[in-house]
Amino acid sequence: MEYFPEVPVIPYEGPKSKNKLAYKHYNPEEVIEGQTMKDLFRFAVAYWHTFRGTGGDPFGPGTMVRPWDDGTDSVSNAQKRVEVAFEFMSKLGVPYYCFHDRDVAPEGATLAESNENLDAVAKVLKEQQEKTGIKLLWGTANLFSHPRYMHGAATSPNADVFAYAASQVKKVMEVTMELGGENYVFWGGREGYQNLYNTDMQRELSHLARFMHMAVDHAKAIGFKGQFLFEPKPKEPTKHQYDFDAAACLNFIRAHDLWDYIKLNIETNHATLAGHTMMHELEYASIQGKLGSIDANTGDMLLGWDTDQFPTDIYLTTQCMLVILDQKGLAPGGVNFDAKVRRESFEPIDLFYAHIGGMDAFARGAKIAAAIRKDRVLADFVSQRYDSYNSGIGQQIENGTATFETLEQYVLQKVEITPNKSGRQELIENIINDYL
After folding, report:
1. How many helices (H) and strands (E) does the chain have?
2. Alpha carbons 266 and 10: distance in angstroms, whole number
3. What is the DSSP string of 317-374?
4. Is 265 helix (H, G, I), strand (E, B) or coil?
5. What angle do CA 231, 217, 145 make, to 5 degrees?
6. Looking at the annotation, which residues are catalytic?
7. pTM (2 decimals)?
8. Does the pLDDT at position 188 exceed 90?
9. Per-residue confidence at 110, pLDDT binned at 50, 70, 90?
10. So what's the pLDDT on residue 413?
11. Which letter, b or e, does each residue of 48-71 get, where b requires 16 or more Cβ atoms within 10 Å of its Cβ?
């Protein structure tokens, strides 16, 4: 059965095309800095938003028209949904997808039943992967929706909840491995607190670290070679979350001897909720060798929550690609569209329009970033701005031979310090505009 009969395989037709179901900029075989776009982006579809999103919000029920769903949370309906998903992804031409366990398979009355449900759907997922060649970028466990996780999962004060969460992650790791998943994501959701009066923060953080070490140990035990990713997320839904931003996550993994095992999965909307730009979060992770993958979306500047809109801002995608190209890509991570169509965009065709727009926006951003890098307009300016550290006293500061005493003697002898150079921020912004 064909679920999107009106939609062909999405072609690349170039910037002049007027076809709404064609790529204007994303050409999977076009080479940017030595990599094809397909290999550079490693685009992935988020199973949860694309195939499970209902369009519901706090003020009303779902609006999405999804003819293939029968309204039940049955295993058979979940298996049919897999066929829908792979037809969609095949026509879109994306090489990867991502999922939470509860996205693809319904929760059972017991852990054993939930595991059986996941196995039944994973069998169909594997069949469709083999049929289409689409791969699993990463899997993760939903440790936030069920009421048992009201106080968190790995940071819950209830040891039984910790044990249940560990059992759930164990199973999802094994299924991810069975499906050839290239990464596994730790996404806390509710790992944090609402009130410090009733919270032992040190104990909760140590429990979270212990949880991750157990996952690392289990990966070694079963032979899982995928990359572990830790996803920063602030203020939603918990007032203070332990995975607040890239800095907090990297500090956590460094402090708890997890540095050799985990990189970060950075999401745009989470960056802005933390008061940062996406470029800041990407750069902070990348300079420490810890940028592993990204969730591509954006928020609304007039709304203060995680709206998960598709990224269509070319400034945003250019900034992302300046960092990603600088570290020569994201593999084995990728660009996952953790984004959902708006509540008002309720027809199945809107899923295609949204992903096409996001993929084209990243393709444009990559081409613009590559041109900027080729012309070295930013690299040369930054190099010149810091050239006082290339010799003399600056070089001594950087190589560690300077001390407070030697620096004091230097300034006393020089009397007048070298004048500052202009930052030229407005000029640089004008230059970036020229490329766009």
Report:
1. 16, 12
2. 28
3. HHHHHHHHHHTT--TTS-EEE-----TT--STHHHHHHHHHHHHHHHHHHHHHHHHHH
4. strand
5. 40
6. 100, 103
7. 0.96
8. no
9. very high
10. 96
11. bbbbbbebeeeeeeeebebebbee
